[in-house]
Specification:
There is one protein chain. It contains seven helices and seven strands. It has a seven-stranded parallel sheet with strand order 3-2-1-4-5-6-7, with helices on both faces. Strand 4, helix 3 and strand 5 form a beta-alpha-beta unit. Helix 2 runs parallel beside helix 3. The relative contact order is 0.15. It binds nicotinamide-adenine-dinucleotide. Nicotinamide-adenine-dinucleotide (NAD) binds next to helix 1, helix 3 and helix 5.
């Protein structure tokens, strides 16, 4: 049996903070949005789709703003609405990204429509949203931006020739912006999850060898949960992480530490 997640809870106080999460209708974004809402923040979910009906969370605590992060107009309107309603933006979580099945090929077999859309959402979408919130964060002289990157930003698998390099760029965006805006009191970080149980990963399980095999590749013996990523993000956005900026945090059950020389773990009985 793979090890279970330890029990216990950690509470963060985010009363009155104004938070935008892109792609908060499901998966990791949904978990982050609700963790902020449960700790008192005003949370906006900027997502191209409505929150999923399968979500068992209380969705009313998070306001959905329809937004395609590939659209400059949508990003501008989203941030403007938040400013009109609250006059501040304290946290931006750049989370919305796509990894279509058609992208799981060597790059000469990925159609340009597919990779252009991935660049537009996964790379430019992060830049658009950051560019929209930064003037306000500079006026406030405080703010936190988190880019959801990936373990595949740091080391590659086969057939992620579009997704992986863009995720690396998300890490470098955070480093660059973190350095650039440090003296404005703005922290910028990236978080690189291992495999996390979300609709995105469920859609690609066959490419990854199946759920049990994928979990067993992680030293902790299982894939992660969206709540575990949310917990790391809330810590990074909290005053407890006030000296942490322009860097990346891998939330990956040890996967990134495992070199390719390592023999595979035996499958659990
Ligand atoms: N799940 C994993 O194992 C994993 C691992 C590493 C990194 N990540 C990263 O974490 C983030 C979240 O992943 P997930 O697994 O929760 O994804 P997901 O596919 O489950 O959810 C993504 C959300 O983004 C939204 N979205 C897609 N395109 C959009 C657009 N153009 N504008 C606005 N919203 C859009 C979707 O509607 C959806 O609600 C992504 O950046 C992903 O690359 C995920």
């Amino acid at each position: 049996m793979p090890p279970k997640r330890p029990s216990g809870t950690v509470q963060y106080e985010n009363h009155g903070r104004v938070v935008i999460v892109t792609g908060g209708s499901m998966g990791i974004g949904d978990a982050i949005a609700h963790a902020f809402a449960e700790s008192g923040a005003h949370v906006y979910n900027a997502d191209i789709t409505s929150p999923s009906h399968s979500s068992d969370r209380e969705t009313t605590a998070v306001k959905h703003l329809p937004c395609d992060t590939a659209s400059e107009t949508d990003c501008q309107a989203t941030v403007q609405q938040v400013l009109d309603e609250h006059g501040a933006v304290d946290v931006l979580i750049n989370n919305a990204a796509i990894q279509p099945r058609e992208s799981y090929h060597p790059i000469d077999s990925v159609g340009s429509q597919v990779w252009r859309r991935m660049i537009d959402v996964n790379l430019c979408g992060y830049m658009r949203m950051a560019s929209e919130v930064l003037p306000q964060m500079k006026r406030q002289q405080c703010g936190v931006i988190i880019n959801l990157a990936s373990g595949q930003a740091h080391r590659t698998a086969r057939e992620v020739g579009v997704y992986g390099p863009i995720k690396s760029a998300n890490v470098m965006q955070a480093r660059q912006w973190g350095v650039e805006y440090a003296r404005d009191g703005i922290r910028v970080l990236s978080v690189s999850p291992g495999a996390i149980d979300t609709p995105m990963i469920r859609a690609s399980l066959s490419e990854q060898g199946g759920a049990a095999e994928l979990g067993n590749r992680h030293p902790v013996g299982r894939i992660g949960t969206a709540d575990e990523v949310a917990a790391a993000v809330l810590w990074l956005c909290s005053p407890a992480a006030s000296f942490v900026t322009a860097t990346d945090l891998e939330v990956d059950g040890g996967l990134g530490a495992l070199g390719s020389f390592a023999a595979p773990y035996p499958m659990p009985e």
